[in-house]
Amino acid sequence: MIIICGTPGTGKTEVANLLKRHGFKVIHLSNLVIREKLYLKYDEERDSYIIDEKKLIDKLIEIEKETSEPLIVEGIGAEIIPNKFVDICFVLICEPKELEKRLKSKGYPYTKIQENLEAERLSLIWGEALDNYGRSKVVVIDTTDLTIDEVVEHIMKEIKKRGLL
User: Fold this and answer.
1) Which long-range contacts (CB under 8 A, 24 or more apart) does 40-48 make?
2) Which residue, of 8, 54, 103, 124, has the fewest CB within 10 Å?
3) Model's pTM, two decimal places?
């Protein structure tokens, strides 16, 4: 399983969608969680679902067994998938000033923007990925000045270099 994670606005969804043309089956985590009701509850304050990790992991294992294509799981929370199921984890990061512009353009409310900027400044997702997968499985890509195609190219090179495709 290939993981693409990062704070909102770093390009995860766009990158994953472009990777489909390279023969990957892409799972957008937030869509899967909502569609399959893989959550414990809805957090009104954060305007997000609290993932039921066990149900999510069971569902991802089931999907991976049913598909012949390499599987990419993209989204916030993807870094919680246990190490034994993950071949590589790409953490997309972005300079906070650029990230703020991206989140504003998406219409995020002020408090949500500030929460995500703080998470990015503290490298929370990157740190969680390193804790879960170790340095050898984590690849960080700074998307601040890259096009989506350049990010995809970087990911494809790394996947091929590691013999995952």
Assistant:
1) 46/112, 46/115, 47/109, 47/112
2) 54
3) 0.93
